[in-house]
Design brief:
Elements lengths: L2 H8 L7 H7 L11 E4 L9 H16 L3 E4 L13 H11 L6 E4 L2 E3 L11 H13 L3 E4 L3 H14 L17 H9 L5 E4 L8 E6 L3 E6 L6 E3 L7 H11 L4 E5 L6 H11 L5 E5 L2 E5 L2 E4 L10 H7 L3 H12 L3 H7 L20 E2 L2 H13 L3 H15 L1 H9 L1 H8 L18 H5 L20 H15 L6 H14 L2 E2 L2 H6 L6 E2 H13 L7 H22 L1
Parallel strand pairs: 1-2, 2-3, 10-11, 12-14, 15-16
Antiparallel strand pairs: 3-4, 5-6, 6-9, 7-8, 12-13
Helix pairs in contact: 1-5, 3-11, 8-9, 11-13, 14-15, 14-16, 21-22
The protein binds one RNA strand through helix 6, strand 8, helix 8, strand 13 and helix 12.
RNA sequence: GGCCUGUUGGUGAAGUGGUUAACACGUAUGCCUCUCAAGCAUAUAUGCACGGGUUCAAGUCCCGUACAGGCUACCA
């Protein structure tokens, strides 16, 4: 029996040979330096922040080199897959403007290197597994999980290296006859690689991010085809990334230790080894120690957390981009007129240690980002957020669209805009008093002046003798000064600070009375602009209300 | 246990042998025609985990120690 025939018995019924597959998926015709990268998730549902970082880097690298970025679904673990998982992932990423050139889409596969779902590629994996068997580089293994577990226990007890290798690889030297006999007896088997590595030999590997690293060769006979006929991650990775002609495998650091296995697989299969970039994980502080951010333990790992908070997606991307390349911020500062798409991401500038996830920094970036937006854009974002998280407020925003936009425009579209909005879950809290329908103060936050008579005097004097809706800002302020002085308060802060004892108080105290009367709050944006928006009628109404309170 | 990797201020970091260790966040104080938010100014590492070594010169190269992280599945 030839080895080809033998391979055919072990893995029967495959449509094409490996040579045919090689021809079906030829080398891509791209310009020099173009990166072909991919996002290859298991369809387990939501995208978390670390995965978003990795995906973004993949995406951007392909984009900035005029390469190809594709989506492949790694569903070889049937237990973990969930039904709608992949659509959710596609939707989530679309929100962040991450789009795929090729691969799985909601409408099916796009591109000529598919299928892009691993469970549909069984024939392909088998064809290449057969190649290995035919070349005596892979063999069937009849060991049960029980036996493997026992061996591992012995290894652990003796302090030996764990794994299926060397003398522990019991099925490695089974003859064809022995194998055939076991098969005839109905014994189940999997396919393992016949490793040609020597653990005592080292080889140098160059990672795009981590640089040169020495690894021992892998001598483990890793599983390549599982008992359900599907490939393991390792094998699927080699076959898929070769056939899909991936140039750069950009993935999480948890894969770094698998490099010896992966490079060995590529070489034994006769494939060119792709370039690798391993991204260090996002860390979080937990009880004084840092650990990788976790989907299960950390709410901030889920992007839904930020949606709920109302942090704009674009701000999240800006944060992740600074995590990827910390010079990004400086670049933005120096290239204010350019689109962030023009920034070139560099592997060499990526951190090799784990980056601490910095929530304060994210908030700061979000705040700065929002401050540069136009009022109408803020209105749209606020409304979008309110629609899902604050229906009552969404109705108000919709009902008073123009007015709301003006409210958002207070101290906004100018050289040094307000930076008080960091996320939109706070919006109602920050603006409720601007809406008559919401203005039902429970208390007034009077400050230095809280004597009822004095408050009354100031408010009445202001409304009767000074207030005029048509005043411009300077006139408004001059009047405030004048009134303060007429009532015994300092109109000029410098004069007040020089001789505080000469006055009952100062213009700030007087303004505060008006501010609190109109809004009930002691901290608000510019009083003049607020009054402009409220209008005469409401101002009078509110002052009356404050006097009665 | 084994194999890898990392360790610069409260935080993210720049730094690829040679001036006073960038920049950003945070914090503190001060300035400002009103409170906040800003803006501006100033401060914020007895010094690059620790101990040795190479060198005229080290955060930057070498060795050891400690600590942290990842991997060590018929999971990805």
């Amino acid at each position: 029996m030839t080895r080809e025939e033998y391979a055919n018995i072990l893995l029967p019924g495959v449509k094409h040979t490996w040579q045919e597959y090689e021809e079906m998926y030829p080398e891509r015709n791209l310009k020099e330096g173009a990166i072909v990268s991919r996002y290859a998730p298991s369809p387990t549902g939501f995208v978390h922040i670390g995965a978003l970082l990795t995906t973004f880097i993949n995406y951007k690298m392909a984009r900035q080199t005029d390469g190809v970025f594709y989506l492949r679904v790694e569903d070889t673990d049937q237990k973990r897959s969930i039904d709608d998982g992949i659509n959710r992932i596609i939707e989530d990423l679309a929100k962040f403007d991450i789009k795929f050139d090729e691969g799985v889409t909601k409408a099916g596969d796009k591109g000529s290197y598919g299928p892009y779902t691993q469970s549909e590629r069984k024939d392909i994996y088998w064809a290449f597994a057969k190649k290995l068997i035919a070349e005596d580089k892979a063999y069937p293994c009849f060991c049960t999980e029980e036996e493997n577990k026992n061996d591992r226990a012995v290894q652990e007890k003796n302090g030996e290296r764990l794994g299926y290798y060397g003398k522990w690889a019991k099925c490695r030297n089974l003859s064809m006859e022995e194998v055939l006999e076991k098969i005839n007896n109905g014994e189940k088997y999997i396919i393992r690689l016949k490793s040609n590595g020597d653990f005592n030999k080292k080889f140098t590997f160059k990672d795009c991010i981590k640089g040169k690293v020495e690894f021992p060769e892998s001598d483990e006979d890793i599983v390549i085809i599982k008992s359900d006929g599907l490939p393991t991650y390792h094998f699927a990775h080699a076959v898929d990334d070769h056939l899909m002609r991936t140039t750069h495998v950009i993935r999480g650091e948890e894969w770094f230790s698998s490099i010896p296995k992966h490079t060995q697989l590529f070489v034994m299969l006769g494939f060119k080894v792709p370039k690798y970039a391993h991204i260090s994980p996002l860390m979080i502080e937990d009880n004084g120690t840092r650990r990788k951010i976790s989907k299960r333990k950390d709410p901030e790992a889920a992007i839904s957390y930020y949606h709920e908070k109302g942090i704009p997606n674009k701000a999240i991307m800006l944060y992740l981009e600074t995590v990827a390349n910390s010079n990004f911020e400086m670049w933005m500062e120096q290239n204010k007129d350019k689109s962030t798409d023009e920034f070139i991401l560099d592997f060499k500038k990526m951190s090799t240690g784990g980056t601490m996830f910095d929530y304060d920094k994210l908030i700061n970036i979000s705040k700065n980002y929002i401050s540069r937006l136009r009022a109408s854009e803020i209105y749209d974002l606020a409304l979008e957020h309110a629609k899902t998280y604050n229906e009552k407020f969404a109705k108000i925003l919709e009902k008073y669209k123009d007015y709301s936009t003006k409210v958002f425009n207070i101290e906004r579209e100018q050289k040094k805009p307000r930076k008080d909005i960091a996320y939109f879950s706070d919006t109602e809290n920050q603006t409720w008093y601007m809406y008559e329908e919401l203005f039902t103060p429970t208390s007034y936050e009077w400050q230095n002046i809280n004597d009822k008579k004095e408050i009354e005097l100031i408010l009445n004097t202001y409304v009767n003798d000074y207030y005029n809706i048509n005043d411009d800002k300077q006139t408004w302020f001059d009047k405030m000064k004048k009134m303060s002085e007429s009532l015994g308060y300092a109109g000029d802060m410098k004069a007040y600070k020089a001789n505080p004892d000469n006055y009952k108080g100062n213009i700030a105290d007087v303004s505060m009375v008006i501010r609190v009367a109109l809004t009930s709050k002691s901290m608000t944006p510019d009083l003049y602009e607020i009054m402009k928006l409220l209008g005469t009628e409401n101002i009078q109404k509110r002052i009356k209300k404050a006097l009665q309170a």
